[in-house]
Amino acid sequence: MPRKSLEKAVEDGEWIGLAWLAWCAGERNLAALGRQFNKRPETVKANLLKYSRARAAEVSDVDPTAEYLDGLQHDLREALRTYRDAENPNAKVGALKHATACREKLAAAKGVVTERKSVAVGQDPVLAPVQVESTLAVLSDPRACELANALIAHISGGDEQIADETSGPDATTES
Hints:
mainly alpha
């Protein structure tokens, strides 16, 4: 079925949908859209706003996952159509790469594992050793500092005590 010409679309009011498609494709100049459809920029803007509100109401109940999957399937069909119709080998390769990317995204969106990563021992950030900073500056009670020093000395296997940063040089320790 042949598509209507632009002049016929302007007369029928289908120009609003075409203007919306142009807007979504990145045409943000209302004057240029007005010239394309023989309308004033104010008319184009008003109709684009009405059309966008109608589209928002139309798709407000649409499941975003279903919309995403349908969009990916559309992209896959278009990539394969481009592959079939292209005469340039580079275009065919690009279309196949895009089709493969669409397939991977479709599979991932459906929960299929599409990639497995191998991680060398010791390089997995989840299994990395936990680094703990030990400072006694947070301890204000002298007795707590003594206990912490004794515990640190016991764990490290040494007999020396680590000075508390908060107690200063004139701190007294009870033995």
